[in-house]
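As promised in the previous annual report, we have extended the structural survey to additional targets. Below is the entry for Plastocyanin-like domain-containing protein.
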Amino acid sequence: MARMVREMERCAHVHYDPGKTYRYRFCNVGMKNSINVRIQGHTMKLVEIEGSHTVQNVYDSLDVHLGQCYSVLVTTDQTPKDYYLVASTTVHKDGVDLHRHHPIEPGRWTPEKRKNYNLIDAVSRHTIHVYPKSWAAIMTTLDNAGMWNLRALVLERQYLGQQLYISVLSPERSFATNTTC
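The corresponding structure token record, generated without further manual editing, is:
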């Protein structure tokens, strides 16, 4: 065990050239907790979420929720020395919006919340983490006729099978879309 820890410490020490910009990709492949990622003494420019380009805002830390992947750019513009890359679990508190990129908020949804939706450069994604007693606005394009499936998953209760089916009808009468009647 001690040998493995020493090997991990040796491998985790990386040399960077001063003044250069490096890309990091953070993915949360966990099953329950969100993680917060930060690099000591440096900011991170968010350039991609889930394969979609985004407004390039700068952050001191990022919350990475279940199933999410982010790409950030970090410039080594500080005094050369050892800096820690820190990843820790996050704890959701009612009244705090930990999610910076999607309309997810604590409390109940009301029609007034629509004014906060990002309809210009929304992120295309397949997984959204919604905290207990919170809501999420999901914009989707149902681009072909048929049955669409939306699943909610809480691993501890996955046997309950929380699913919603949406039927998209086409005005075209066709056997291909089952709308011949």
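The helical segments are 2-12. The domain at 2-89 is CATH 2.60.40.420 (Immunoglobulin-like). These points will be discussed at the next consortium meeting with the crystallography subgroup.
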